[in-house]
């Protein structure tokens, strides 16, 4: 991918930060719904794709079905529903190329600072680029931050006692080395999330043995990697209509699973355990290795496409150890039960580091913006921060579902401002304030470690960060833009309207 070979413009109506799933989606909606707006995409890395280009570990794939993980406006045509990264990356590249979005992308352009000037009514972005990391200033009326919420330059690696004594190799999946040869090696994968559940079956056939070492079990659902219904609908009704029908069905199924998990956690726990038992050998200790101490959907459910993890456990190429690490040894990992698990390679699938807005420093009229001091408006703006939007997807459903709705609302907001001659928009909390709550009600370790650094959500609309797609359809597509919580200004020097 080459992107734009031109110098970045001096000024754009909208500066999009990040050329991943969210950034490309935002560009589409801007082009389609506000065709008169100028925009540029600054991507810190040398290519597009975000997560799907960054991660290179074996088996890397979606943990959501592609009927909903793909864009609503662009059908997913491949038969794979739980798809490998290479297919998702191809899909993103094709979207960017065919829609003319790629010519707006400036690769290896890293935004380090964003400064809002009320006097000028615009943002100034400081951008590092080029071999010498020279800096350039670019002005924008709006900034749309589409960089996700985790650090791209490093994953989370807790300290392990004795790791310095280990004679083998320790690898984090986010920094997977191209020269890592695990053939006929003993491998230990530490973790119990989606990454660990992906790596273990992907390498099990090539290693001498791979052990999934988990401190706490997680819920694992077996799902087919091909959605036969989606394939049939596309064949019968064509790509676009078939995609729409498959998407509706998948959204409904996701919502049913989540709702049942929250309302009837005991029943869902028993159902998942029953499915797991049927997928494993008779007598397998399911209650040891697949019996989490929390309820379903307190953390995200993991998927086993076509039961790949269970197949590896059945044929003996993989095993699970549910225990705590006492220390690394020279030749493996010693756990609290006294067992030493032999290892030539240890893969620490221990999670991500959250970094909001890509670590960019934000200021408003010279004052630093501290995210934890602000409340999120409609899940996409910060109170009292003008002309700044960001994209964070669902934690209980497919990421893209929320991003599409956010982008639609964003273009509605821009149109509303143009129709009324307004140049500046900032959310304002009500006079009595709101009760502040954590932004994400989610038990995953990477979220819990970072809650104190994140902005807050409120206790009522429009300050709630909704996790219900059907409610959000009403909020973002149908509710009036002018809801009493937005303060508008026609120019930096004229009175504000709210």
TrEMBL record:
UniProt cross-references to PANTHER family, sorted A to Z: MONOOXYGENASE, PUTATIVE (AFU_ORTHOLOGUE AFUA_8G02570)-RELATED (PTHR43872)
Keywords, ordered alphabetically: FAD, Flavoprotein, Monooxygenase, NADP, Oxidoreductase
Protein's name according to its UniProt entry: Cation diffusion facilitator CzcD-associated flavoprotein CzcO
Family the entry assigns: Belongs to the FAD-binding monooxygenase family.
GO molecular function, one term: N,N-dimethylaniline monooxygenase activity
Pfam families, per database record: FMO-like, NAD_binding_8
Source organism of the structure: Leifsonia shinshuensis
Gene3D superfamilies: FAD/NAD(P)-binding domain
Superkingdom of the organism of origin: Bacteria
InterPro entries to which the protein is assigned, alphabetical: FAD-binding_MO (IPR051820), FAD/NAD-bd_sf (IPR036188), Flavin_mOase-like (IPR020946)
């Amino acid at each position: 991918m080459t992107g734009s070979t031109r110098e970045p413009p001096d000024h754009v109506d909208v500066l999009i930060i990040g050329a991943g799933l969210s950034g490309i989606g935002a560009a589409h909606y801007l082009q389609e719904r506000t065709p008169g707006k100028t925009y540029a995409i600054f991507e810190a890395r040398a290519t597009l794709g975000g997560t799907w280009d960054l991660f290179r570990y074996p088996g890397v794939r979606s943990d959501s079905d592609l009927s909903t993980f793909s864009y609503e406006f662009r059908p997913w045509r491949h038969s794979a529903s739980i798809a490998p990264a290479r297919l998702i990356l191809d899909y993103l590249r094709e979207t960017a190329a065919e829609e003319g979005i790629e010519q707006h992308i400036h690769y290896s352009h890293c935004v380090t600072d964003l400064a809002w000037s009320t006097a000028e009514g615009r943002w100034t972005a400081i951008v590092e680029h080029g071999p010498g990391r020279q800096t350039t200033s670019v002005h924008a009326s709006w900034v749309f931050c589409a960089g996700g919420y985790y650090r791209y330059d490093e994953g989370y690696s807790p300290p392990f006692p004795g790791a310095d004594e280990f004679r083998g190799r320790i690898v984090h999946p986010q920094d997977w080395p191209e020269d890592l040869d695990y053939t006929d090696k003993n491998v230990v994968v530490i973790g119990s999330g989606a990454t660990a559940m992906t790596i273990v079956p992907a390498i099990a056939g090539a290693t001498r043995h791979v052990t999934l070492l988990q401190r706490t079990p997680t819920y694992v659902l077996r799902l087919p990697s091909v959605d036969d219904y989606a394939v049939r609908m596309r064949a019968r009704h064509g790509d676009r209509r078939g995609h729409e029908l498959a998407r509706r069905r998948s959204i409904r199924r996701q919502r049913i699973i989540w709702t049942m998990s929250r309302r009837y956690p005991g029943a869902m726990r028993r159902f998942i355990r029953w499915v797991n038992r049927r997928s494993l050998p008779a007598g397998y200790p399911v209650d040891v290795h697949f019996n989490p101490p929390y309820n379903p959907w307190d953390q995200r459910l993991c998927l086993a496409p076509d039961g790949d993890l269970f197949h590896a456990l059945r044929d003996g190429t993989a095993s699970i150890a549910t225990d705590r690490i006492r220390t690394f040894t020279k030749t493996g990992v010693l756990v609290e039960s006294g067992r030493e698990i032999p290892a030539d390679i240890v893969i620490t699938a221990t999670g991500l580091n959250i970094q909001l807005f890509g670590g960019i420093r934000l200021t408003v009229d010279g004052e630093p913006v501290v995210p934890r001091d602000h409340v999120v408006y409609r899940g996409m703006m910060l109170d009292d921060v003008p002309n700044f939007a960001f994209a964070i997807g669902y934690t209980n459903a497919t990421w893209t579902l929320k991003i599409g709705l956010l982008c639609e609302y964003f273009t509605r907001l821009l149109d509303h401002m143009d129709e009324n001659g307004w140049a500046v928009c900032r959310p304002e909390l009500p006079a009595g304030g709101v009760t502040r709550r954590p932004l994400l009600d989610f038990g995953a370790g990477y979220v819990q470690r970072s809650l104190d650094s994140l902005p807050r959500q409120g206790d009522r609309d429009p300050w709630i960060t909704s996790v219900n797609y059907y409610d959000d359809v009403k909020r973002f597509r149908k509710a009036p833009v002018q809801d009493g919580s937005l303060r508008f200004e026609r120019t930096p020097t004229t009175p504000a309207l709210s």
